[in-house]
Design a protein that fits this description.
The chain is built from three helices and no strands. The chain is an all-alpha fold and about 110 residues long. The longest helix is centred in the first third of the chain and has 33 residues.
């Protein structure tokens, strides 16, 4: 019985995290689209005020993760972890290069 309770807790936490991620990404992309930093389609809202395009894109992305987990279950974690690590290093490298360029353009 303890294993069943633990599985319910873990699955509930995962569903809650997915819901939070979809909401956060939807609002972030909506704000970026309003400022012209993302495609205009992300600024469209449903009658209820939900950025539906972002919810659709996030749903497709999550479905892609499920498909990858089905096709290559042993390698999918390594693949996603590698992509996340590369993205983190890339972002910090761009921050470093931007900081260097800004400091070079400043007057003493």
């Amino acid at each position: 019985a303890a294993a069943t309770v633990l599985n319910i807790v873990v699955i509930s936490a995962a569903v809650s995290a997915i819901n939070s991620d979809i909401f956060g990404a939807g609002r972030m992309m909506y704000g970026m689209a309003k400022e012209g930093q993302a495609p205009e389609s992300f600024a469209k809202l449903s009658k209820q005020g939900v950025p539906w395009m972002t919810v659709l894109v996030m749903g497709i992305t999550l479905l892609g993760g499920v498909v990858l987990n089905y096709l290559i279950p042993k390698d999918v974690f390594l693949l996603i972890a590698s992509l996340a690590t590369f993205a983190t290093v890339w972002v910090w490298l761009m921050i470093l290069l931007t900081q260097v360029a800004m400091r070079r353009s400043m007057n003493a």
